[in-house]
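queue> holo job accepted (fe (iii) ion)
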Amino acid sequence: MEYQKFGNKYVLRLDKGDEVIESIKAVCRQNAIKLGTVTGIGAINKAVIGIFESGTKKYHSKEVTGDMEIASLTGNISEMNGEVYLHLHITLTDSTYKAFGGHLNQAVISCTGEIVLDVIEGQVDRAFSEEIGLNLIKFVG
Ligand code: FE
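queue> job finished
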């Protein structure tokens, strides 16, 4: 991965074998990014995507492999307990041009990934909601 900062934005180029979430987290840690948005496209050959079942408050996840385009990677950067917290969703397309996706747990770049981080000047926390079963955004200050 290589990246460069332009104003409040970081342009990332992920390379073959790079894992998307770890790569974005590394940039956030190296640059003390606490809040922001993520957008991206690229090509991957492995991903773990999830769906949250609201009734049971459980995440179900599935590994998908093969040549896939990232038609859309979108999400946000925040913090929880002082650690970088990414919440990313992905839409992938496969060799049949069909789209599928969900909550993103892992994605491995097969060719290249082009990701932009847009930094928001500010900070929010996250707290686990017993009622919902997820780590929700918690506004501080
Ligand atoms: Fe999600």
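queue> The longest strand covers residues 58-80.
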